[in-house]
Amino acid sequence: MASEFKKKMFWRAVVAEFLAMILFIFISIGSALGFNFPVSVNGTSATQDNVKVSLAFGLSIATMAQSVGHISGAHLNPAVTLGLLLSCQISIFKALMYILAQCLGAVVATAILSGVTSSLPHNSLGLNALAKGINAGQGLGIEIIATLQLVLCVLATTDRRRNDVSGSAPLAIGLSVALGHLLAIDYTGCGINPARSFGSALIANNFENHWIFWVGPIIGGAAAALIYDFILAPRSSDLTDRVKVWTSGQVEEYDLEGDDMNSRVEMKPK
Fold it and tell me: Closest Cα partner for 77 from 134, 148, 135, 130?
């Protein structure tokens, strides 16, 4: 933990998560709020386009992953961070700092959106909520499945042992995010990201059923890591190696030619 704490690249990674989260939340939730502005065509009010919102979330994640993936890994989601922690690819300290940065970034972005969209009546600020006819158990199940497929995609596309991955990993992950939204928007508003849900709930001061949007993604992310690491593609590392990563991180993540701003940073899946 002490070794990571002293490294400039570690703190750059934390700041990258914070800034990328602000952009991601502002763009994606902003696209969802856009349909709420009083627009009328031939007397017909606009309705939310789920495809538009899903693509906005997916493409913004892909863009941020391409922008800061070589710095922080572009987790931008506590469920993804948890999955990578259980997969022994990051330390516990780094995971905690990432989750804190993600939550703070989501709150800042949602607060900015609150000011930009202050003229909206009944502004929900992208608050996740259960649809009519969906109970807490059903909503929890939707969140678990939608998050599981996302974290499974992240683990598979960033697996360093693979040499068969072609195309863009950020785009693949972005499409997975879009897929989750296409599934879950109509049921829960699609959380699959506790930090994103927390930002809206805090600024809107509405925590009704908020636990679902933490417990569901946490279960889904943990399940994806366990399924991938122990069933689909078992890792050979023993307990000692895992504990070393959890306490000290992966040394190669910060194995740079120099620890200054001009150092070349290789994009390594986290």
Answer: 148
Q: Which pairs from 141-144 meet CB under 8 Å and 24+ separation?
A: 141/216, 142/183, 142/184, 142/187, 142/188, 142/216, 143/184, 143/188, 143/191, 143/192, 143/212, 143/213, 143/215, 143/216, 143/217, 143/220, 144/216, 144/217, 144/219, 144/220, 144/223
pLDDT (tens digit per residue) in 163-211 = 887 788 999 999 999 999 999 999 999 999 999 999 999 999 999 999 9
Q: Is 44 helix (H, G, I), strand (E, B) or coil?
A: strand
Whole-angstrom Cα distance, residue 104 to residue 102?
A: 6
- Alpha helices by DSSP H, listed for the chain, are 2-5, 8-33, 50-72, 78-86, 92-116, 136-157, 169-188, 194-204, 212-227, 239-248
How far is residue 72's CA from residue 60's CA, in Å, rounded to a whole number?
Answer: 16
Q: Give the H or E element holding residue 163.
A: none
Rg for the chain, CA atoms, rounded: 19
Angle at 132 between CA 126 and CA 135, to 5 degrees: 95
The pTM (predicted TM-score) of the whole model is: 0.86
Residue 49 is encoded by which pair of tokens? Answer: 């386009």
Quote the tokens at residue 265.
């940073």
Alpha carbons 156 and 98: distance in angstroms, whole number? 21
Chain centroid, CA 171 distance in Å: 14
Contact status, residue 157 vs residue 42, Cβ threshold 8 Å: no
Q: What is the token pair recorded at 21?
A: 């989260």
Bridge partners of residue 41, in order along the sequence = 44
pLDDT of residue 228: 94
* Integer angstrom CA distances of residue 3 from 7, 101, 243, 250: 7, 20, 15, 11
